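So, could you explain this one?
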Amino acid sequence: MVHETSIDAVPDVRSPTARSTRQLISVSDNLDPVRVQAQLDLAATVLGLGRCIDEIVIPVRRQLRMMVATGERDHLQELIATETIRAWLDRCGWSLPAPHPIGTVLLACGPRDCDMVGPESLALLLRGHRRPCWVLGARIPTRMLATAARAADTSAVVVFAHHRRGRPQAIASLEAVDALAIPVYYAGEAFDADRGRPDCPGRYLGTGLQQAAEMLMAATSPPNRAGSS
């Protein structure tokens, strides 16, 4: 059963899309991947993919983490819901056109972070605009990230960190790539508070992934392609 008071207490869920968010959390409680994906399909049809990600996918993922922390969900429910969301994101990318032949945006979780929904959501939005992306994965060590950034035709690197305990390691990764003169960006709840940014190289992408995608596209477009999609 969904704990309505807990959901109502989360600011991200008090929005015009609150009903869809509650429905998705309720469906995930029943461990029903088919219904979860059906709810996401409906939300994407009604809202558009970008708003669905910003107003449904990310708030639901955040709320599920909080509910596990408070004992309102168990880890199995969270895992099934998360993997169902990731499978849906992957399916949304099946019919996208080939990317433009421009520099690749690398996306990765920090060395102590494993939540892939943010990087994969942002990659989907970028690919929808034919931007080449490479999602490296979860808990990417600093040295591995720097090696990948050197090896690829990299136009930017984005590091996600959701847990504050992993912020120092994520910052070390940003510093390692920044030292290669490759533009770096960062996102995630570990960086959302103002106090978490002054010691970070690069640019904060904000809390909305649609806006983050637009920022990255503007920053990485070649001069003759600036503003195109």
